[in-house]
Structure formats: C-alpha cells, structure tokens
Design brief:
Number of strands: 19
Shape: globular
Radius of gyration: 22 Å
CATH class of the largest domain: Alpha Beta
CATH superfamily of the largest domain: FAD/NAD(P)-binding domain
Number of domains: 2
Low-confidence stretches: 469-483
Largest sheet: 10 strands, mixed
Length: about 475
C-alpha cells in the first residue's frame, strides 16, 4: 500500500479520458485548479451566466488537496469569531459567518440540480474541550453572535468541571450544566479530562468523488460552454488591461478573466502589464502546512459522526507567535465506506498533526508518512476514542496533504485590486469545502455583473490583514526581546 494514498482517491472511479491543451484557445473565463474550489466556481458560473469556461488542472481532477483532506464538512473558521469582530467589525464578521453557513443550502441545491449520487452525511457533531477558559472564549463568540442575530451553537459544561466560578456571570444564559457522563457520551470518549462540548452541524463526504461527479455533469450539461484540460501545467500568467494570457508548455490560453482556484503553491509567475506588481504579493499570500491523516476500518454499527478535540487553554492559544494561528487540535470522522464492491465498513479518519512549510517547494506528494504523526494519531485513539482497537492499530490508509493558509486564515474570494482581470477563490485554511462552495457562488455573481457589498473575503481585506499581522509579529518580537 502506498503510505500516502488517501481513501478518497482509492474509492474514485474515473471513466473519462485525459484531455490536455492541444491548441491555442480563447475563452471567456479560464479557471486554474480543478479541485473543489475550481469545480464549484465552474458550476456556478456555468449555471448562473452565459460565459464560456475552461477549467485547467496541472495534474488530474481532485488529485490535489481535494483528494487528500479529511472529508469533513464544517462551517467553522480557523479563528475565533470574536477575533474577526475585533479586526473587521461585527457586521462584516457576521456576514462572513452567515455566508459560509449558507453554503450548506448551496450544497443541497447542487445535489438536487445535478442529481448527484455521491454519499453525503450531515448530522450534529461535537467539539470537546478540557479547560473552562477555552470555553469562556466560545461563550464570548456566542455573545457576539447573539448581538449580530446569528443562531448560536449549544454549549454544555460538566456540572463538576473545575473553574466554573471563573465563567463571567454575563454568560450564564449561554450554556447548560450537565452531568460529566453526558459530555463523555457525546464525545464518545473515556478521557475524563474533557469537561465541555459545543454542538454544531457537521457532515462527511468524499470530496474527490463529489468533484469528479460534478465534472461529469458539467461536461454533459454544458457541452458548448465547458471545457476541461488536465495534465496541463500553467507556468506563466500575463495580465493586460482587459485580458489574460496563460502559457502552458506548448500552447496558450487567452481569457477575459482568469480565476486562480489553487492552493497557492503552483510554480507559475504572474506578470501584470497594466499595473503594480502582483507576483510577489500573490506568492506570499498563502503559507503552507502538511496535514497528516490516517484511517482505520471498523464494523458498520455506529452512525456517522464528526468530532474535534481541543486539549489546550486560552493561554496556550494566545502564546502562539503567529496571532492568527491556533495550536493544533485532533479531529475525527466516522462514516460508511465501501472498500471494495459490496464490502462496507465504517471508516474512522483521524487528523490533526501538521508541519509548517517555509518553502512550499519542500512538499513532496510521494514522501513517506511521518512516523511522529502516526504515533500521535495512534496515541490519541488509545487515550480518547472509546471504540479504539487495543494494541497496535492496523491503519488501512495513511495520507498527507498540502493545506494553504492565508495570512489572516480567511479565504480569498474576489478580484485582484491591482488588475481585476485576475480573480481568486483560494486558501483552504484547513476547512475548505463550504468556503469553496460559497467562494464559487460569490465569484459567479461578480462575473455576472452583480454589485456586491464589501466582504472580509475580499483580497483587499486579506492584504490589510497581512499588514496587521506583520505589525503584530513585530510587536511580539519586541516584547520577547524586552523579556
């Protein structure tokens, strides 16, 4: 078994031939990257406009981050809601959260319109915490959500949890005290250190299968307006005032708009002949992390679930050098999985260990799996998951994937301010499925000429946040030097 093979690609069945770019071509819209972001962007532009779309992929559809993720659907940001409010204001933060939550409805629309058969589960999932001060942060988030008129997620705290008297009285109506056994039951754990739970809507899907099926639908439905080129690496993008030229190895594409739906690490240059330099800014807009995941099979006797485990205090989170980066957490999903035809099991996937990359060129798709990562995952299962096998665990799948994190840990969706011919729907930030869907819909509205209100997903907001981040880092270093 290839130690980096994901269960999603193992399950993928392709019937299409590989079509590459065989001639120079001119189109309305060129989309670079055929993962979930590029495919969803294609879907909404084709559905909601009359534009012609060319989707270009350097490898094969869904074989990048989309085929090497945890398959978990959540509407979370990789930041606390209150930190978004502090930086962008309550209105923009609330609009962003509502937009991503609304992507659940968009996903259901896609399933209905395209008559998709890819299995998807949605249910109530749970986030577990070991320290009351981290729950206070979550209560602070919910207080602001209530102020903004956003539905809040229930919070349950053990009635025997240490530190209950540290919870501000203003938050007394934002949580419920329950027996400790109820906390452990919801988290399916025997680890008594977990004393609180947040309940929220989550889901599971094989995003590689989902994307492959949607591509088939687009090719069949929009034969006159949709083209797909795989194994076509774009090495240069040149922007003029009203068009873009994309150069591949032997041929080129001319487009009215080019939309980058990549993970941010493709080896191409961006030349802006109609304004200020973009290339350096773009290639510093996304930083990389290698995320490690593993999957084991168990009997098909428990329902689907998605769980996250935060074994950290608020002080731990605030001590991280990067103000936008939280300490790692472990997440787990369980869903039915057909390993071979008519051979179903539950697949339990666990992820969380990661390694930051200063140079994304360091990432090798075929690299051996980290021994430290698998030891951490196995240790977590033995300590925390009540249905964990005893002794050494037989992991059927071990895989890793490259995740793209923007400086603000917020997806970048919209037009490049220095040249509006260039657009973005990128930066998975660890939780990319719903944000990719929302980003695709927002891009289609911009392409269709809709005037949209400002959003914290706008590239300008990310650039602003990047400058704020740099300032915070400088302050952190000065404080550290004085200490």
């Amino acid at each position: 078994m290839n130690p980096t093979n994901s269960p999603w690609l193992h399950q993928l069945e392709r019937t299409r031939p590989v079509d590459t770019l065989k001639d120079d071509i001119a189109v309305d819209i060129a989309i670079v990257g055929a993962g979930i972001a590029g495919v969803m962007t294609s879907y909404f532009i084709l559905r909601d406009t009359k534009k012609q779309v060319l989707l270009i992929e350097g490898g094969r559809v869904a074989h990048g981050a989309t085929g090497h993720n945890a398959g978990q659907i959540v509407s979370d940001f990789e930041r606390e809601f209150y930190s978004l409010v502090e930086e962008y204001g309550l209105s923009l933060a609330a609009d962003a959260e509502n937009s991503v939550r609304g992507a659940w409805i968009l996903l259901e629309q896609i399933f209905a319109e395209a008559k998709l058969s890819t299995p998807m589960s949605s249910f109530m999932g749970y986030n577990g915490f070991t320290h009351v001060d981290r729950i206070v942060d979550e209560l602070k988030n919910n207080a602001l959500r209530l102020e903004a008129g956003i539905q809040i997620s229930p919070i349950y705290i053990s009635d025997t949890a240490p530190g209950l008297d540290e919870i501000p009285k203003d938050y007394k109506n934002l949580y419920n005290l329950v027996p400790h056994a109820d906390i452990l039951s919801l988290l399916e754990t025997h680890d008594v250190q977990y004393i609180a739970v947040i309940s929220e809507k989550k889901g599971c899907v094989n995003s590689a299968m989902l994307v492959e099926e949607i591509v088939g639908y687009l090719l069949a439905t929009y034969k006159d307006r949709f083209m797909l080129c795989e194994e076509t690496h774009i090495h240069e993008v040149t922007l003029e005032r009203d068009l873009a030229l994309l150069k591949a190895k032997e041929h080129s594409v001319t487009a009215d708009k080019v939309i980058l739906c990549t993970n941010g690490f493709e080896k191409f240059s961006i030349n802006n002949n109609a304004g200020a330099d973009i290339d350096v800014k773009f290639h510093h807009m996304v930083r990389g992390k290698i995320g490690y995941m593993a999957g084991l099979l168990e009997e098909l006797k428990h329902p689907p679930v998605a769980l996250s485990f935060y074994d950290q205090t608020a002080e731990d989170v605030e001590s991280v050098v990067d103000p936008y980066d939280q300490k790692p957490y472990i997440y787990m999903t369980r869903r039915p999985y057909e390993l071979e035809k008519n051979e179903k099991h539950n697949l339990v996937c666990v992820g969380g260990p990661d390694v930051s990359l200063d140079d994304t060129g360091q990432y090798i798709k075929e690299a051996e799996y980290s021994k430290e990562a698998i030891a951490e995952i196995e240790g977590f299962l033995h300590k925390t998951y009540q249905n964990s096998p005893k002794g050494d665990i037989d992991f059927r799948f071990k895989w890793h994937g490259l995740m793209g994190y923007t400086p603000t840990s917020i997806r970048v969706v919209g037009e490049e301010p220095k040249n509006r011919v260039l657009m973005y729907n990128l930066g998975c930030n660890g939780v990319g499925i719903l944000t990719s869907i929302y980003g695709g819909k927002r891009i289609s509205e911009i392409v269709g000429g809709t005037k949209l209100a400002p959003s914290l997903f706008d590239p300008r907001a990310v650039y602003k946040g990047s400058k704020t981040l740099s300032r915070k880092k400088r302050i952190h270093r000065l404080v550290a030097q004085k200490l």
